[in-house]
Amino acid sequence: METDPPPKSWSIHTRPEIIAKYKVLERVGSGAYADVYRGRRLSDDLTVALKEIHDYQSAFREIDALQILQGSPNVVVLHEYFWREDEDAVLVLEFLRTDLATVISDAAKERTLSVGEIKRWMIQILCGVDTCHRNMIVHRDLKPANLLISDDGVLKLADFGQARILMEPGFDASEENLQQYEHGASNLESLLQHPEALPQKNQELGPVGHAEYFEALEKLRMKSSTEDIPDGNTSCLATCTTSDIDDDILKTNFSVEAMEGEEGKELGCLTSCVGTRWFRAPELLYGSTNYGLEIDLWSLGCIFAELLTLQPLFPGTADIDQLSRIINVLGNLDDKIWPGCSTLPDYGIISFSKVENPRGLENCLPNCSPDEVSLVKKLVCYDPARRATAMELLRDKYFDEEPLPVPVSDLRVPLTRTGEDKGSPGGWNEYNGMDSDSDLDDFGSVNITRTGTGFSMQFP
Ligand code: ADP
């Protein structure tokens, strides 16, 4: 005899399996795909975050990545999750009261973030990213607001809703790779004064060295280039629709040539974007669907620059503006600077006029030491293959030199997220407000003219 399926529960507050174990308290935040509540575990009064994820794929990614990364000190802890067919997944996460965006905005108000503190925040971020990358997990949305911080100063990567696993975890680390790892790990130990900041679990896998991971990535690309990263075209054009266009003229220096026919139709689609714009790598902005761990390294460079200057490095107001800002600093790109860039899907479609005197990263980092500038330059560079890996940066002499990184326990942690029902505290909200993911929304509009091949959007 057929029995009726149990009634669907639409609210986290009424789901029996959850309320049997947790008291659901106030909502502490909501993101693109999720609502997050503070909760209390009934068995031991532990404060937790209950993250109700409304998007299947995002839930799947987050659970998958967090399970692989379980035990990593610089990744948010997933205690358990609830997920039944036809219901939103609810993840039970450790509750973390603040984040790096708040640290930066507080410091910007008071102009107080010491070099020792900056170094310790950087080391923790690098450890978290290194753990992800050793497991071939690309986070794809690294930004200060997704770097959560515990009351005792431990920084943890969070929001893995966009993460992708590029290959099976524990992929065969070669002998040399392991040797390289051991060398790295011993340096690392002297570097890190606090065990809580050390990668623990998954260490036995060995890190993926620079050459190895690109090699592995290349193999993966050969194997599955067509199915690579199928979701969300992230190029400037993917988020640009002709309906966004009107007669106003923009004061910028590029043009976009759009095609008719099938490609033209695709341009009309508004699609989701990977990574928040300000931290999005140029290969994504040029429409690459064949990218890898390196996109996180670009984001890391932008985060480090922001930690050093307390201001976002490339605060683009639209995706094309984002690219324009990057080009104004790093200069125009060609196959000499970035071999293969001319094969990027949108390379021939978006063109910028010649930037005679690129500003240069050093000029975006006033009052920074040459070592700091060099650190950012190792990450914020066009050619993804030239970006330094997290492990390489952990060995950078910058972290061994005076002023040394302060102990984690000496980090000043803002007291935020006290439980009011609002998005997130402090600077976080300010940033999100400027951080829309749909292109040309706040950008204004462009001139459109017909050309032989289709139409051209002109940004004078
Ligand atoms: P989305 O995947 O929708 O972007 P997020 O993971 O960014 O969702 O979470 C949305 C908000 O919830 C965050 O901005 C933050 O304020 C809060 N939040 C997320 N995870 C936690 C956590 N572990 N502890 C405390 N607050 C959290």
TrEMBL record:
What Pfam family does this protein match (any one)?
A: Pkinase
- The broad enzyme category this protein falls into is transferase
PROSITE patterns from the UniProt entry: PROTEIN_KINASE_ATP, PROTEIN_KINASE_DOM, PROTEIN_KINASE_ST
Q: Carries keyword Nucleotide-binding? A: yes
Q: Which residues form the signal peptide?
A: none
Catalytically driven reaction(s):
L-threonyl-[protein] + ATP = O-phospho-L-threonyl-[protein] + ADP + H(+); L-seryl-[protein] + ATP = O-phospho-L-seryl-[protein] + ADP + H(+)
- List the keywords (alphabetical): ATP-binding, Kinase, Nucleotide-binding, Serine/threonine-protein kinase, Transferase
Q: Which molecular function term from Gene Ontology is one that the record holds?
A: cyclin-dependent protein serine/threonine kinase activity
What is this enzyme's EC?
2.7.11.22
Gene Ontology CC: one annotated term = nucleus
Supply the InterPro entries for this chain.
CDK, Kinase-like_dom_sf, Prot_kinase_dom, Protein_kinase_ATP_BS, Ser/Thr_kinase_AS
Which positions in this protein are listed as binding ATP?
A: 51
* Coiled coil regions, renumbered to chain: none
Residues of the Protein kinase domain: 22-399
**Family in the record:** Belongs to the protein kinase superfamily. CMGC Ser/Thr protein kinase family. CDC2/CDKX subfamily.
The protein depicted here goes by the name: cyclin-dependent kinase
